[in-house]
Amino acid sequence: MNVTSNQVVSELALTQAIQRIVHQLESNKRVRDAQPPSDGVEAELGPELENLMIPTIQETIQDGGALGALCQNFNLTAFERDLLVLCAGVGLDSSIANLVLEHRGGVSFEPTFMMALGTLAHRPGSGEVLSRLESSAAFTEAAALRQYQLLHFTGATETDRHLRGLMIDERTLDYLLGLPSFPKALRLIRAVRAKAADVPESLMAQVRVAREAWLGAASDADAPLVHLVNPGGAVAVDGKLAVAANIAAARGFGDDLRVLDAAELPSDLTHLDGLVRLWNRESLFERSVLIVDASGVDSDAAKLELMDRFVRGVTGMVMVLTREPRAFGSRSVVTLEVQKPSIREQMQLWEQAWQPELQAAQQATGGDAAQLRNLAVAVDVGLERLANQFDLDAVTIAAAVTSARFELPSWSVESMVASSWRALQNFTRPKMGNLAQVVTPKVSWNQLILADSETQLLHMLVAHTKERFNVYQGWGWAGDGSRGLGVSALFGGPSGTGKTLAAEVIAHELQLDLIKIDLSSVVNKYIGETEKNLARVFDAAENGGAILFFDEGDALFGKRGEVSDSTDRYANIEVAYLLQRMESFRGLAILTTNLENSLDEAFLRRLRFVVRFAIPERPLRKRIWQSVFPQNTPLNDDVDFDTLSRLEISGGNIRNIALSAALTASSQQSSIRMRHLLLSAESEVRKLKRLLREQEVIGWSHVPALSQA
Fold first, then answer.
1. Confidence at residue 588, expressed as pLDDT on a 0 to 100 scale
2. Does some domain include residue 17?
3. What is the C-alpha to C-alpha distance for residues 109 and 100, in angstroms, rounded to an integer?
């Protein structure tokens, strides 16, 4: 380890202080040996001890080093300073250790209050002994030595504190020696390097307010709490940390920040308050910014209450990251709403991230004006497509480009956009965990057979999704808010009518992943867990540009009922939270249901599209029958699609019948015949709790034989 000048000064200051304590202890010992106390009365001080010069606190501070800084930051008295040095010297100087051991009759190397009273309780510059009351004040819980745990008591807790051993805290000793360290008790607080990236102009005005508030603070302790919120949608934590680093740089802090995840705060209030005291001590040891990240607990009321208590107790430079604004008691707060950059700003960020490749492409044109214009147009179109679909911050864009470069075979505008697109989709998948299934769809429009009116609605839904940012931000329809950027749709109708297939077709058309929500994993019986799971899903989908697909989501979007017990109340809270997130969600969300009437009316009002999937009419059923068999499937000449279309069932049922007939025919080493289809049809409609009607099977083969079979 390279020794710094500050460490040299700190070690020298501590060494000199220890030598003075050694001299003081030795002088005191000689006085005691020469004049042993009688009748319990303290021995009078000799001339040698009276003439011992004890520096004032101000002199110690002026000497510099860690000891002076500690005395100043913790406002120690001369007695407290000397007691701290005494305890530090036990492990650093054998003379002190031996003197303490002798003073305690060979029992322990740990000094006690009684020993400190007899050897250190002197007023600076005089031989006057401090009163017991004055010196005892250093041992109260409110005094700096115990409040900040600079020293610890040892031994049995029931022993009088005046007789218990004293030991210096390990972190305190490291600080006095100028050694870098961090207490294990604060392991929840991790060091994070967050580069103070350029802030988009749309956010700069708010950042200036926060920077000026910190710049104007007389001291770190007087600085207001900076509260970063993002109620408008998901903002990556790294993006918020970049903004935090930008603000912290105004007060001279570098890239090193301390971050505490609010989800890890201890629920035991004693431990929580202990964490507060330790951080307050740490903030006085080393200047640092503490960032409390509550981004992952925005729906957990219990954790938010713990976070509020923690934030109200800590001192120094503090920032808090939450989704919604919160109050923190009497603390002065500067609230900053972190938003993602505008479409144009995101396009500029994409261009900056790809700058080396774009410059190389420009040079490859040889300066030809026509080629340069074509390149510029292609880049604008490609980057606008990325910015229209993915709503990102600067940190995520830079990370996506870094990832995209690894799979870029050869550079072109098309490959630049395609690799960036894939990288962003990959960012979404790991964040889902077991809450959802991420599907990359491969079905297209020609595989979806619906009535013209429904097909037209689906094409309109795609158009709204593609053009929403252009209209709302480019054309100014968003105004001052972000409402309307999301697109929500309800696909209602009986099972098997094509709702899921339609969602996959739309995802394929938009070249986006389809996130199928696993309701069994999302819905949790424990209070607050459902909202927490939903927050993870919505945030990941929003940052990754994916489509949220709630298949048969009645369990989530059901009607809110009257509150008769606590279960009803929390169920209603879950629905209300879902409505709020659906309204603020900036992507495409699709819900399917077989029971449209069971949905909450407030949710239905927020839907932009309602597409009703019905049992297809006979012409559509014929088209489905014709398309359901793969090209290599052997069909007998007796298979009549017009006859098959009489069966009034959904497209999903048609596929089940066709597959079942194919398996039966293959087991008989036969091509598919009408009798195979009839046998499968009867089995399928039985699942629907009905029988084949006579008019549905007119013209099918071996009807009597089927019932006998």
1. 87
2. yes
3. 6
Q: Per residue in 364-406, pLDDT tens?
A: 988 899 999 999 999 998 998 888 788 787 888 888 899 998 8
Residue 378 sits in the same domain as residue 302: no
| Domain containing residue 247: CATH number | 3.40.50
Distance, in Å, from the CA atom of 682 to the CA atom of 413, rounded to the nearest integer, reads: 55
Statement to judge: residues 145 and 56 lie in one domain = yes
* The pLDDT of residue 76 is above 80: yes
Please name the residue that has the structure tokens 């000064």. Answer: 9
Read off the pLDDT of each residue in 309-336 and give the average, rounded to a whole number: 89
Are both 548 and 564 inside the same structural domain?
yes
Domain boundary among 569, 590, 612: 612
Range of the domain at 578: 445-612
DSSP string, 435-463: SEEEE-----GGG----HHHHHHHHHHHH
Domain count, the chain: 5
Q: Is residue 420 part of a domain?
A: no
Cα 141 to Cα 146: distance, rounded to the nearest angstrom: 5
State both tokens at 425: 């989709």
Sequence-distant contacts of 92-98: CB under 8 A, at least 24 apart: 92/14, 92/18, 93/18, 93/19, 93/22, 95/22, 95/26, 96/18, 96/21, 96/22, 96/25
**Same domain membership, residue 151 and residue 14:** yes
Reply yes or no on whether the pLDDT at 299 is more than 80. Answer: no
Integer Cα distance of 184 and 187 in angstroms: 5
Tell me whether strands 166-168 and 289-293 are parallel, antiparallel or unpaired. Answer: unpaired
pLDDT, one tens digit per residue, over 409-429 is 788 899 999 899 888 877 756
Nearest Cα to 307, choosing from 323, 320, 290?
A: 320
Looking at the fold, whether 328 and 349 belong to one and the same domain comes out as no
Task: Kindly state whether residues 630 and 703 are assigned to the same domain.
Answer: yes
Q: Do 176 and 65 belong to one domain?
A: yes
Cα 81 to chain centroid, rounded: 42
pLDDT at residue number 27 = 79
CB atoms within 10 A of CB 91: 14
In a domain, 436, yes or no: no
> Looking at residue 71, what is its pLDDT?
92
CA–CA distance, 44 with 49 (Å, rounded to integer)? 10
Distance CA 229, CA 226 (A): 10
- Which 3 state secondary structure label does DSSP give 35? coil
In a domain, 662, yes or no: yes
Band of residue 569 on the pLDDT scale cut at 50, 70, 90? very low
Q: Taking Cα atoms as reference points, which of 297, 193, 269, 300 lies closest to residue 238? A: 193
| Residues 13, 156 share a domain | yes
Above 70 in pLDDT, residue 556?
Answer: no
